[in-house]
Amino acid sequence: MTKAILKSSILILFSALAFAYEPGELPQQAASVIPRELQGVGVTEHRGKKLNLNLQFQSSTGQTVKLGQYFNQGRPVVMAMVYYNCPNLCGMQMEGLAHIFKKMKGEAGKFYELVLVSMDPRETPKIAAEHKARVMKMLGKPSAEKHWHFLVGDQKNVTELASEIGFHYKWNEQLKQFAHATATYILTPEGVLSRYLYGIDYAPKTMRLSLVEAGEGKVGTIVDQITLCCFQFSPNGNKYVLWSFNLMRIACVFTVGVLSIILIPMWLNERKKKRAGNNGPEIT
What we know:
By secondary structure, the protein is an alpha+beta fold.
């Protein structure tokens, strides 16, 4: 039992390295120490790709649903691929999402929809419902319950969705677990992949700005839009950082605007005086 726990812990440790690179692009030194079970595990970003919204799943209430019913509602969608009975990362990721959205400004249903999809086709709507109840209790926002969706599906639909979002995972027969990375996907209201956020916890501000960006002006305030102009997403830091070039560009536009307000009336007044001088005194 101790040996299995130790091996499981090693897999989790190496997952942090695995999802930082695309499959097949690990540094040579890292590839030599990555366990065979984790080779090929990770995330390939497909930003700009539109998902197949006709894929069918089952909700936590047992209803057959299409992915598309959570889109085209004028708000972005937060998505993650997990499995509810995961003994390690998935539980922490779901708790992390509850923690982030509990602190973030912007209510579910107005600012976003959230969709979790199980990678394990053996999981049932009942299992999804049990985990949803636990996560919603941590979130502490009853109004969000109808906008947080916990789905399960058959192998065909799960595999296709995983391929579209670039999620690579493996079943470990010895440990009876999936080896996988942790990533949260931010999609536009039309179902286009906009942003990838890695790990199990990050600043609520990062999530909010990602949603504003994906919302294409449909969610957020004018302050959010201005903030996005000044900040740029840094994949290395997994957050938005101040972008000096954009800040300088905004400063230049502001300066030109102020000078225009001051100088244009002066120029028009001077032109008017010159015209009056050229016409000479009026003859009566």
